[in-house]
Design goal:
It is a single chain. The chain has 175 residues and is α/β, with parallel strands linked by helices. The chain contains six helices and five strands, in the order βαβαβαβαβαα. The chain is 41% helix and 14% strand. Strand 4, helix 4 and strand 5 form a beta-alpha-beta unit. Helix 1 packs parallel to helix 5, helix 2 crosses helix 3 and helix 5 packs antiparallel against helix 6.
Length: 175
């Protein structure tokens, strides 16, 4: 992965990495450099302000922001940058991520956050959506993204497979 990272992956805490690493792994598979940071809206608000206000100047084109619980990180980041912000709700213990989802998705008009699914699927899809955003002006990336999707389709079996080998039973003879 050569070049300056164009995608930032930010999360509210170290524990969010268990979910957000799936975004990083997906970007790695597509050959996209990314920078991963812990930027808590509640515990490190000054770090959040510095990151969000400086993200564009730092060369980022898309921000993937994951948070759980109150999950203010994606919305607060979006309030301070004009870059696309993709929000990933991290599953919480109390409400299985429903609290995170509602916190991220309910943004006021004028401060958009593209909200993805809760957990691993949301992190993977955030990476794919970030790649698609960049692929609009990057033909080589568009080709890699198409190849990734084709490989995903090819990996799906056409017919169900038995978990156990089929056992042939002798047929009873009919008189």
């Amino acid at each position: 992965m050569a070049g300056q990272p164009r995608i930032a992956i930010i999360m509210g805490s170290q524990s969010d990495w268990a979910t957000m690493r799936h975004a990083a792994e997906t970007l790695d598979a597509l050959g996209l450099a990314h920078e991963d940071r812990i930027v808590s809206a509640h515990r490190t608000p000054d770090r959040l302000v510095a990151f969000a206000k400086g993200a564009k100047a730092a060369g980022f084109k898309v921000v993937i922001a994951g948070a759980g619980g109150a999950a203010h990180l994606p919305g607060m980041c979006a309030a301070m940058t004009s870059l696309p912000v993709l929000g990933v709700p991290v599953e919480s213990k109390a409400l299985s991520g429903q609290d995170s989802l509602l916190s991220i998705v309910q943004m006021p008009a004028g401060i958009p956050v593209g909200t993805l699914a809760i957990g691993r699927a949301g992190a993977v899809n955030a990476a794919l959506l970030a790649a698609a955003i960049l692929a609009v002006s990057d033909e080589a990336l568009a080709e890699r993204l198409e190849a990734w999707r084709a490989a995903q389709s090819a990996a799906v079996a056409e017919f169900p497979q038995a978990e156990f080998p089929k056992v042939e039973f002798p047929q009873a003879e009919t008189p």
